[in-house]
Amino acid sequence: MASVDIVDYHDLEPEFYQQHVHHLFYASSWLKVLSNIYGYQFQTAIDRASGQFIIFTVVEHFLGSKVISLPFSDYTEIDVQSTGAGAKLLQAIQAKYPSLPVVLKTTHAATAPVALQLGHPIRQAYYHRIDTRNMEQVDAQQSSSFKRGVRKAAKSGVTVQLRRNEEALQAFYQMYYQLRMHKFSSIPQSYAFFQQIYQVFMAQQQGFILQADHAGKAIASIIVLEHKKILYYKFGCSTEDSLALRPNNLIFDTLMQYAHQHQFMAIDLGLSGTGESYQGLVRFKESMGGNRQDITYFQSLPDGYDQSAERSFKAILSSLTEVIVQQELDIETTNRFSEILYPFFA
Q1: Number of neighbours of residue 291 by Cβ within 10 angstroms
Q2: pLDDT per residue over 232-275, tens digit each?
Q3: Which residues form the domain of 95?
Q4: How far apart are the first and last CA of the chain?
Q5: Residues 258 and 138 in one domain
Q6: Do 276 and 138 fall into the same domain?
């Protein structure tokens, strides 16, 4: 473990991360969003011998602080192919924070021997990718129902436009708010969070919104972020009364065509859970040609760690969220609650 150092994220040269970071959720731009909105201070555990590393932060609150890589991120691509590298990195983090749990979100399968160096699996999820370098292969993988949906949307007069303005962000948030509150009975991330994404990504030409319109009204929208020639679908929403028009089929078809035309290598379709409520989303991603890959959350607990306080806190947070949803507060009031409560969801 002597070869492992834990340093402030900014103590390593930007060129190191530019060379070794290959996905969005370790990118400096994404970390900037999280730091600006939540005040996180990032650290890097680096194995000097192998060059492998973990970027993490300490999430602090009064009933259960923890180390996590990384909050509000789909996964972290922790490369621990070297024998024992993952264990050494984890041990170094545990040595610095002996009283805190450590949670690592990885792209490893739960049963992979190399991944088990990172703790005990506590949650499974998926992400899907589409290789947009070979659209003939993508077309062959797409289901007939997805293609029919694309044709139906176009025939019904749905149009899709790429936008990078705040009006599109506001239209997105209005729909996103309705979807989270009324379909999922959960408060959305605050508008300030999405404004940070807009400023860090879209205003810098590193992301965009695809908005579907019908009869002069926005009916569906997705936020797409760019990193190293990969497009990341991060957030999406649509109006309940427009789903029969299949706007999402046309949006994602447009996204695939855009990716291919602009020589992006792939589209990352984002995280999907493994539970029954996610099965429709998983089928939709696979119907458009997405290839399923694993996400596993690993956790390491200190000896004798009592999780009861954290469980009680989560139960209180869930009850409070339920009350806010049931009260059907206006969007501005709900947004203020989001700013206060969302840091505790990390």
Answers
A1: 15
A2: 999 999 999 999 999 999 999 999 999 999 999 999 999 999 98
A3: 4-127+296-305
A4: 29
A5: yes
A6: yes
